[in-house]
Amino acid sequence: MDILACPIDKHYPLQLHVFEEKEEIVEGIIICPKCLRWYPIRDEIPEMLPDELREEKDELHFFRKWKDKIPQRITSEGKPFNLKKEPEKKKD
């Protein structure tokens, strides 16, 4: 994390949220607080790709899996994908 900057706007430092950790971070998310882009960490690998190389279906699957651990601002405003357009589940 000490050497990572956002590949889009070059902002540093980035925010790290760890969801699963063993000897290394297995799953988590890296967030750029300036442009609100988020980058998943899957299988210990940070995936810091530009928007045009990211697959919405795969990214949103990861996002939904961990949405309770992702900051609310990112779930509603994060780039390149977010959950703002999805209907909220009704609470019984």
Summarize the structure in words.
The protein is of the alpha+beta class and 92 residues long. It has a domain at 15-77. Helix content is 17%, strand content 23%. The protein contains two helices and four strands. A four-stranded antiparallel β-sheet has the order 1-2-3-4, covered by helices on one side. Strand 2 and strand 3 form a beta hairpin. The chain is globular and about 35 Å long.
- What is the CA-CA span between the terminal residues? 41 Å
Question: What is the rounded Rg?
Answer: 13 Å
Please tally the β strands and state the result: 4
Uncertain segments are none
Q: How many separate helices?
A: 2
Q: Kindly state the percentage of residues in helix.
A: 10-25%
β content, as a range? 15-25%
Class derived from helix and strand content = alpha+beta
- Average pLDDT figure: 91
Reading the helices and strands in chain order gives EEEEHH
> Major sheet: order of its strands?
1-2-3-4
| Biggest sheet architecture | 4 strands, antiparallel
Secondary structure layout:
Blueprint: E1 15-21, E2 25-31, E3 38-42, E4 45-46, H1 56-65, H2 72-77
Antiparallel strand pairs: 1-2, 2-3, 3-4
Offer a quick outline of the entry.
By secondary structure, the chain is α+β, with helices and mostly antiparallel strands. It has helices spanning 56-65, 72-77, and strands spanning 15-21, 25-31, 38-42, 45-46.
Task: Sum up the structure in keywords.
92 residues; alpha+beta; four-stranded antiparallel beta sheet; 2 helices; 23% strand
